[in-house]
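Colleagues,

For the teaching module next term, I've prepared a clean inverse folding example: a structure given as tokens, and then the sequence designed for it. I'd like students to try predicting residues themselves before seeing the answer, so please don't circulate the second half yet.
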């Protein structure tokens, strides 16, 4: 028997995700969606056509909506399904995902995006319990009324706010924020991500707004979703997909070293699909330089996205920025190399020339952006950290991060100097 999940976008039926009796995944656009000239494809990797898409063709997009690595393992365990069974996971989690889609079983009625909804408020005790529970129970999977999914290897929970307080969404309600608990294995990840995201904003990059909060003395990060628009009292979902989904790369090979996109492919994607490629190419250039300066080695193809808002596809605000080099246990090698070089220390004029060629940009422009961003990081690092300091947060960790990014800014600026 073939099993079916209906794919919905803003109240319209886009098509069906299927799993046949051999367990194979497939996707077919609905006639109505194909017939509407203004109806966009779900993904750059799934252009509108009558013929069904095979597992190989549609899996990067659909599997790419699900949690990854140990979070996928844990969620599969909680739900009692196989971690390799994308369909079963989407069946249980696909009610609210990254972007505009909702994936629902045929017997489930689509709820009007505009509500009314009755979210469940969380008191401090329950919120603290959830922070503890999330790593073993990603996305609170299995909790009555919740069907939420987001990619990524770290614990998280999509939520809504009621008068500023965190609440669990009602069934069908679009979530507006993402709660990220600290990563137990690494110290001060909340401080780290809040600081690096704040610093990116302070130097002029477009980033998702974040807030470091704490409950019962435990810090956590609250990220505002850029794929949701608050329209009066109601919330609309805006479509997005990450670069791996757009390029047809499955989540297991998101790193460039294993087949995922590198800078050449990422810049190429923006040039092909962005409504204003010249603007977005410069934004990606700034992101690459900033990540290098702050020591974010984990900027792989699922940490950049396309946002499909008006007037057309564009690079989504940046997210998941943290200084990974603060943790010696993590690889210091950049997820995407800069001209065949994977660490700041190895970078030289030749590497920058190769990177500029990959990006399709002039080397003088790349060098100018580097010098400019390095000096802004130096100027803004301390004040950004000072604005964050609050009773629940680790002040010493912030101090160390400020020193580290300022040191790296000097080295990075020196790396674009032409040798005599
Ligand atoms: N502010 C945001 N608005 C909308 N979607 C977001 C936002 N931040 C993250 N996402 C989506 O959620 C996914 C997971 O978030 P994030 O990258 O922060 O998690 P992570 O588990 O830390 O990732 P990784 O495995 O790369 O460490 C992203 O790939 C993106 O699709
Ligand atoms: Mg991520």
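(Answer key — instructors only)
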């Amino acid at each position: 028997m073939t099993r079916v999940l209906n794919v919905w976008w803003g109240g319209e039926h886009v098509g069906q995700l299927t799993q046949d009796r051999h367990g194979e995944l497939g996707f077919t656009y609905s006639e109505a969606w194909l017939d509407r000239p203004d109806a966009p494809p779900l993904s750059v990797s799934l252009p509108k056509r009558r013929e069904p898409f095979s597992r190989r063709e549609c899996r990067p997009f659909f599997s790419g909506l699900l949690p990854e690595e140990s979070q996928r393992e844990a969620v599969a365990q909680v739900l009692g399904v196989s971690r390799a069974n994308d369909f079963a996971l989407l069946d249980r989690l696909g009610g609210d995902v990254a972007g505009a889609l909702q994936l629902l079983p045929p017997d489930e009625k689509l709820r009007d995006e505009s509500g009314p909804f009755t979210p469940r408020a969380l008191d401090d005790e329950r919120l603290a319990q959830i922070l503890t529970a999330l790593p073993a129970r990603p996305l609170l999977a299995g909790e009555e009324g919740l069907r939420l999914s987001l990619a990524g290897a770290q614990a998280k929970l999509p939520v809504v706010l009621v008068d500023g307080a965190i609440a669990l969404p009602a069934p069908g309600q679009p979530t507006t924020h993402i709660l990220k608990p600290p990563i137990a294995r690494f110290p001060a990840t909340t401080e780290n991500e809040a600081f690096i995201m704040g610093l990116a904003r302070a130097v002029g990059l477009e980033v998702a707004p974040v807030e470091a909060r704490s409950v019962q003395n435990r810090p956590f990060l609250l990220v505002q979703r850029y794929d949701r628009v608050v329209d009066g009292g109601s919330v609309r979902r805006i479509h997005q997909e990450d670069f791996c989904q757009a390029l047809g790369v499955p989540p297991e090979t998101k790193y460039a070293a294993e087949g995922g996109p590198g800078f050449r492919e990422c810049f190429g994607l923006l040039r092909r699909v962005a409504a204003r490629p010249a603007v977005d190419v410069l934004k990606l250039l700034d992101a690459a330089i900033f990540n290098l300066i702050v020591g974010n080695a984990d900027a792989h193809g699922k940490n950049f996205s396309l946002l499909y808002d008006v007037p057309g596809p564009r690079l989504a605000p940046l997210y998941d920025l943290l200084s990974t080099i603060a943790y010696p246990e993590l690889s210091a090698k950049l997820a995407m190399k800069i001209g065949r070089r994977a660490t700041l220390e190895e970078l030289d004029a030749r590497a920058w020339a190769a990177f500029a060629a990959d990006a399709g940009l002039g080397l003088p422009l790349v060098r100018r952006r580097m010098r400019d961003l390095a000096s802004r990081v130096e100027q803004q690092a301390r004040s950004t950290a000072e604005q964050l300091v609050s009773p629940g947060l680790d002040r010493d960790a912030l101090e160390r991060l400020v020193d580290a990014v300022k040191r790296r800014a000097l080295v990075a600026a020196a790396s674009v100097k032409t040798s005599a």
